[in-house]
């Protein structure tokens, strides 16, 4: 769900969901639900969100969506502490033509919950399959304000085997210089402790592939460097050709949303992870 601001296309008010599902028959699926609003356009993906009257539209939320023949009907329940991106849930990312009368230039509220319990079904090719609520992992994210990512980006959501979750962005990368600025990461601990850490200049991305549809370039591999925590992660996008395009008859843009996994080091100790890699290509 997203509300567009016709006067300032950098303003947004959006919901974003990532689900890693295991169904009762043992199959696994990764689901991204997001209209991905940017500069007044979306990917054309919309869904129904319902919650009891008078609720906070978060802790008791039902989601129903149908995209390209895949249907999802789930009820989400947060089971852990929230993630506040940037440590306090506020990010400043300025853009052109800021209007000081409307909003703090470049400022957006940005938070989520990495610990969702999911109940419901997924339907693929007409087959409805129940979700095993003992195994799925879900992430819910809300952002509103101004977020002017005018140079493209890659973003990552990583669930480490030691229980930590890392959320971060690298803005303005190119094929020639795959590390851009600003770049930051927020580390979420299950007890609610947050860390905001520097993304090191040795961060890089490679293994470029080109979309036959749009002609845009994307990375399949990212090496994330967090020197202050003696941390480094090799992020592998499992499905190479992951560009998401607007459905026929909708006005939108192209973006890559894909399941990711890999291994790395945190404070000198080896870890593995599952997660998600998003790319908006301007390169």
Structure explained in plain terms:
By secondary structure, the chain is mainly β. Mean pLDDT is 85; it is low at 1-5. It is 0% helix and 53% strand. It is globular, with a radius of gyration of 18 Å. It has two domains: 1-148, AttH-like domain (AttH-like fold), CATH 2.40.370; 150-282, Beta Barrel (AttH-like fold), CATH 2.40.370. Strands 1, 2, 3, 4, 5, 6, 7, 8, 9 and 10 form a ten-stranded antiparallel beta sheet that branches. Strands 11, 12, 13, 14, 15, 16, 17, 18, 19 and 20 form a ten-stranded antiparallel beta sheet that branches. It has strands at 11-22, 28-33, 47-50, 61-67, 70-78, 83-84, 90-92, 107-124, 127-130, 137-146, 153-160, 165-171, 183-188, 194-198, 204-210, 217-226, 231-237, 243-244, 255-266, 269-280. The chain contains no helices and 20 strands. This is AttH domain-containing protein.
Protein traits:
single chain; AttH-like fold; ten-stranded antiparallel β-sheet; 20 strands; 0% helix; AttH-like_dom_sf; AttH domain-containing protein
């Amino acid at each position: 769900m997203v509300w567009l601001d016709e006067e300032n296309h950098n303003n947004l008010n959006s919901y974003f969901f990532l689900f890693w599902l295991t169904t009762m028959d043992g199959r696994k699926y990764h689901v991204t639900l997001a209209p991905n609003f940017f500069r007044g356009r979306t990917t054309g993906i919309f869904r129904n969100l319902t919650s009891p009257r008078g609720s906070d539209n978060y802790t008791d939320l039902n989601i129903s969506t149908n995209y390209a023949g895949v249907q999802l009907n789930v009820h989400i329940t947060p089971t852990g502490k929230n993630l506040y991106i940037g440590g306090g849930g506020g990010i400043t990312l300025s853009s052109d033509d800021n209007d000081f009368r409307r909003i703090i230039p470049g400022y957006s509220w940005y938070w989520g919950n990495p610990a969702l319990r999911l109940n419901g079904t997924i339907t693929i090719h007409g087959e409805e399959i129940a979700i095993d609520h003992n195994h799925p992992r879900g992430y819910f994210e809300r952002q509103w304000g101004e977020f002017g990512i005018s140079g493209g980006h890659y973003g990552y959501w990583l669930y480490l085997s030691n229980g930590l979750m890392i959320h971060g962005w690298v803005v303005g990368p190119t094929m020639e210089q795959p590390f851009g600025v600003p770049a930051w990461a927020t580390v979420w601990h299950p007890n609610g402790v947050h860390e905001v850490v520097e993304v090191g200049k040795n961060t890089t991305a490679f293994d470029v592939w080109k979309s036959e549809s749009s002609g845009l370039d994307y990375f399949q591999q990212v090496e994330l460097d967090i020197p202050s925590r003696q941390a480094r992660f090799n992020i592998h996008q499992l499905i190479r050709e992951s560009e998401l395009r607007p459905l026929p008859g909708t006005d939108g843009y192209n973006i890559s949303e894909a399941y990711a996994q890999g291994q790395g080091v945190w404070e000198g100790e080896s870890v593995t992870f599952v997660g998600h890699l998003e790319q908006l290509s301007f390169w």
